[in-house]
Structures are given as C-alpha cells and as structure tokens.
Amino acid sequence: MFTPHRMMPAAGALLGSALLALPVTAHATAAPDPAVRPAAAATAAAATGLDDPAKKEIAMKIVSSAENSSLDWKAQYKYIEDIGDGRGYTAGIIGFCSGTGDMLDLVEHYTQVKPGNVLAKYLPALRDVDGSDSHAGLDPNFTRDWAKAARDAEFRKAQDHERDRVYFNPSVRQGKADGVGVLGQFIYYDAIVMHGDGTDPASFRNIRKRALSKAEPPSRGGNETAWLNAFLDARVWAMKQEEAHSDTSRVDTAQRVFLRKGNLNLNTPLDWKVYGDSFHIG
C-alpha cells in the first residue's frame, strides 16, 4: 500500500521544471596518455553513484518498501488509488498524482510516444484537475484504464522516463554536486519522491536549505556524515509539517540505520524497517 508522499508543489513547480542550480567547472584538456587503456580510463571516469544500475535497483526497492510495503517495485506500474491525501489519484512506480502535475506530465509523454493510447482521452480532465483532489472527468473508468495501460511496455517505459527525469536524475546530480556518495544520493532521492521540489517550506530545496544552516556538505569542506545527519534532521522536520507524513520511520529505522553503520556506499547486505515491517536485501 502506498503511503502519502510529495508535498503539493507551488504552481505545479516540480523538480523537472525547476532544476537545482549546479556548479559548472571548467576542465583543462590534457593529451591522452597512451599507456592508459581505454577500458581502464572509462572505469576511472565512471565513479559509482546511485545511477550505477545495481545501486539504482537497490534504491527502487528501498523506496518501494516505504511506498508499497514491498520490495517488488516493478509490480507497482499498475497501482492506482486515491489515498485521501488531497492529491487526487496516486499511481504507478513513484506515486504520480493527478493533483500535482506529474501524472499529467506522464500521460502527455506517453501520448507523445504512443498517440491514441488508452489514457490519452483523459488528458483534458487531467489538466482540469491539476492542483486539486477532484476526479472530475476521470471516474468511473480511469483506474481500470490505468491498469490496462500498465500492461503496455511503452507505458512502463514512460513511467521509468518520468521518474528519472523529474526525480531520480536531478537528485543524483545534486548529490554528486554536494560531494555525497551513494547513500547521500539516495537520501536526496527519497526526499524528492515524498516532498517534490516546489517552493513550499517542506520541499526538497528548502529541506536542503534548512540543513545548510546547520552543516556544510563535503563539496564545501564539510563532513559527509554530519551533513547527512543535518539533512535528515531537516527532512524529519518537513515530514512532521503534514499529518500524512508524520511517521518518520523511513528515516529513523532505515536511512539513519545505514548512516550510523557508516554505509555511505549503500553496500549490501541491507536490513531496515519501515512502518514496523522488516526488509532485507542480500
């Protein structure tokens, strides 16, 4: 079962449309060293981050443990229900919401890829209900058609695309810019999934801003563990601003556990709890 996530972004401003400003660094171009083999050079250039396929799979499972009480994140493409959090329908692998704009973006992308799909006819209604919890124009068949669309590989790919574009890739970029490792990048990702990146006080950017008043990220010379603890403190504060998010176990008995163990690379095996349920990745 999904737990409520993302704060309503102001004016539909999600992270996909207002990316965090990342530093740009000029790099000097050096003549290639003939002694360095191309494969070795490629390996050195590709430092492991949360975007490493194996690490990304772990991230998807941990988020699913909180959002769906299951490690089987791929079973959630078909998921859809109104969980009563004021965001209309919540659906899919990341909890796209009819009231927060990201479900609309998803169906628009799907329709660009596959015109005439089973959800295309709902685009006018999705535009109308954006910013509200209304089902106007969606009921009674939207949930049935969503489940039908989830059997289409193109719709599953569209969900992956929007998850990465709006949430995963920007959080990894910001994590790398802040100098944090795989765990830190995951901590950012989970925060963006729940809170979005609007302008409200509990959005990702403002959680990070709150943390900056207490600590510095490694990119500014700070200690990574101290920075991530400050970020998680700010995250807990943000979660407690809304009753639907007030259970902070996804931080307290999951992310804090990894951090206390010094597992900054999110190496397996992993053991954690969310909402009292125990999970393990070997």
TrEMBL record:
It catalyses: Endohydrolysis of beta-(1->4)-linkages between D-glucosamine residues in a partly acetylated chitosan. It is found in: Secreted. SUPFAM superfamilies: Lysozyme-like. Residues 1-28 form the signal peptide. It comes from the Bacteria. PROSITE patterns: CHITOSANASE_46_80 (PS60000). Belongs to the glycosyl hydrolase 46 family. This is Chitosanase. It comes from Streptomyces amritsarensis.
